[in-house]
Amino acid sequence: MTLPASIASARSQRGLTLVELMVALVMGMVLLAGVATVFVANKQSYRLQDSLARLQENGRFAIEFLERDIRMAGYTGCKNLVLKANTVADPPQTTTCSTKGMTLDGGEPVDGFDNVGSNSPADPLNTGALQPPRPPKLDTDILRLLLGGGQGAKVIQHKENSAQLKVTAFADLADEDIVMVVDSTCENGSIFQITNFANKSINHSEVVHNTGNTTSPSNCVKDLGQTYMGGRIIKFVRAAYFVADTGRLAAGQPVFALYRLDSTRVGTPTLQELIEGVEDMQILFGVGSDADNDGVVDTIAYKDATAVKNASEWPAVVNVRVQLLLSSADPNALWKSQEIDVQLGRTSVTEYVNIALTPADKAMRQDYNTTTTVRNRVN
Fold first, then answer.
1. At a CB cut-off of 8 Å and minimum separation 6, what does 85 contact?
2. What is the dihedral of CA 21, 26, 32, 37, to 10 degrees?
3. What percentage of residues in the chain have a pLDDT greater than 70?
4. Coil, strand or helix: which one is 196?
5. Which residues contact 196 (CB under 8 A, 6 or more apart)?
6. How far is 176 from 274, CA to CA, in rounded Å?
7. What are φ and ψ of residue 44, in 5° steps?
8. pLDDT at residue 214 above 70?
9. Would the CA dihedral through 217, 219, 225, 228 be positive or negative?
């Protein structure tokens, strides 16, 4: 019996030869390697783009936080205000009134520290006493600001030599707040510490500023120098910006962040972690001069905090130049360690200097800078 040709041909093909099998395996591996390469490349590209987007977002947020407070440094709600009285006692508690004008606890509306641990104390803000401790990163700068905030409660009753003011109800005030009251014409103002605050009714709250309070710094006298009927109360906000270790790790390396220390009220200050990934902050202060004495700044010289302090030029600071170095949250955003040249004012010079960085990790890094005018010091 003769089998059909198709069946005979099928019986003769009983498998693949070793050479054919090896060729098929090699071709399959090449295809798989191509697919894997495309996948890895796409994944790395995604990580790169995601890290860049987050880095830019963090940079924008950090700059926005700083610019907002720098612009408002020294804000009292009025321009060319005459300070009638500062009843806040010089610390520790004494009966001696402060002679510091708009400065409180030795701090100017704008000041700072240069290269902590080198040119300044390692922890000038005493953040090591917080829980958990957050001491500033060594060789970074600190910016301190004093500005007016709150809702501006209106004064509805006040006698000149009285320690009591009646203000609009549910005001954004509290015991121990240090505030400024300004008159209705926005020409005069006085600084004092609230010793007792209470909402008396739905119509008014009561602000008391007695002397001899147990909370430091207290008030040296109760006389505010004039009546402030119809005026407003501006609450002082004291904020400090600095870089510190978050206590977290990424690929075995410490994660740093930009922090804001709010010490508006006497007692334990409030610490906020603002932006993760901020590794360095360097600050130069623009000291303005009015050569022709016409009330307009003619020239500006940029100096670090140490130089400004040594020359006693804090009252002449008209703008602040801040530079931040940020790293991505992903420690493996790049194929290899990034070599980056940044301009950071680490030395006591009047301009930034180029510094080459070669980090140990593969995170992406980028520097951001801004120069912000202190509005309340420029005409």
1. 97, 190, 191, 192, 221, 223, 224, 225
2. 180
3. 80
4. strand
5. 175, 206, 207, 208, 210
6. 26
7. -65, -35
8. no
9. positive
Q: Which residues contact 46 (CB under 8 A, 6 or more apart)?
A: none
Q: Which residues of 92-106 are buried (b: 16+ CB within 10 A; e: fewer)?
A: ebeeebbeeebbbbe
Residue corresponding to tokens 């004039």: 226
Q: Residue 51 in 3-state DSSP?
A: helix
Which residue type, as a one-letter code, is found at position 76? T
Q: What does the block give as tokens for 153?
A: 């409660």
In angstroms, the first-to-last Cα distance of the chain is 115
Write down the pLDDT at residue 319: 92
Residue with tokens 């093909």: 13
Distance from C-alpha of 228 to C-alpha of 188, rounded to nearest angstrom: 9
Given the structure tokens 């015991």, which residue do they identify?
175
- What pLDDT score does 193 carry? 87
For residue 68, the model assigns a pLDDT of 92
Cα pseudo-dihedral 350, 138, 59, 246, rounded to 10: -170
The residue assigned the tokens 């500005």 is 147
Q: Which helix (H) or strand (E) holds 38?
A: helix 18-71
Token pair for residue 7? 């069946």
Q: Is 319 exposed, middle or buried (0-12, 13-18, 19+ CB in 10 A)?
A: buried
Residue 304 tokens, joined: 């670090």
- What does the block give as tokens for 132? 């958990």
Read off the pLDDT of residues 127-147 as tens digits, 9 standing for 90 and up.
988 888 999 999 999 999 988
DSSP 4: P
Whether pLDDT at 258 is above 80: yes
Radius of gyration of the chain (CA): 31
Residue 69 vs residue 332, higher pLDDT: 69
Burial 245-257 (b: 16+ CB within 10 A, else e): ebeeebeeeebbb
Provide the residue ranges of all domains of the chain, joining segments of one domain with +: 50-377
- d(CA 235, CA 29) in angstroms, rounded, equals 71
Instruction: Please provide the size of the chain in residues.
Output: 379
Four-point Cα dihedral 114, 116, 118, 123, nearest 10: 140
